Structure prediction request, 174 residues.
Amino acid sequence: MVIETARLILRNYSMEDFDAIFEILSDEETMQHYPKPYDEEMTRQWIEWNIQNYQEYGFGIWAVILKETREFIGDCGLTIQTIDGELLPEIGYHIHKKYWKKGFGSEAAKAVRDWAFENTIYDSLYSYMKYTNIGSYSTAIAAGMKKVKEYPDENNKISYVYAITREEWNKLKQ
Ligand SMILES: CC(C)(COP(=O)(O)OP(=O)(O)OC[C@H]1O[C@@H](n2cnc3c(N)ncnc32)[C@H](O)[C@@H]1OP(=O)(O)O)[C@@H](O)C(=O)NCCC(=O)NCCS
Prediction:
């Protein structure tokens, strides 16, 4: 699977990406809205889970590569998540902190959104995050999503749910 945007390539993960994604997922600042940063075992499982998702669903979280330098700068993609008790298609993302606020997160999220509406039958796509994760919900808003729910969540205290419907996406494209 390969998605291309103006500046990025999204492609399947392989175990060769371990060092690059470990640098991101083990970083305390990057993972400040998670229960804790990932250790090596959690990172290996993260890659394996995504590779398994490609086989099971035809999608997962993909590696995000900077076209200009071929550098791995993060990941972004679609997974099925339990959000307030419902199984829903969710767009998720992590970008290396040295590349934050340059528009890469939203460029990747928009590409995943477009891919999902073009290649799946889902009528809504979601992103959810801890209520304190401003970068994450700002990225969801940049991808055309609106807040649809807040709920108490044992991991996040309060989770925010953002969503975009197929109808809203069709209007965005016009
Ligand atoms: C969320 C994340 C992927 C955003 O990546 P990014 O490349 O910085 O995103 P963008 O540059 O496309 O920014 C998108 C919007 O969010 C805003 N934003 C990004 N980080 C922000 C922050 N820390 N505080 C406030 N706004 C922020 C940007 O200003 C931009 O707003 P705009 O569209 O109004 O200009 C990145 O912050 C990250 O990796 N965070 C840690 C991992 C994480 O928490 N992932 C989400 C789990 S739910």
Notes: The chain has five helices and eight strands. The longest helix spans residues 40-57. The chain has one domain: 2-173. The helical segments are 18-25, 40-57, 104-119, 134-142, 166-173.
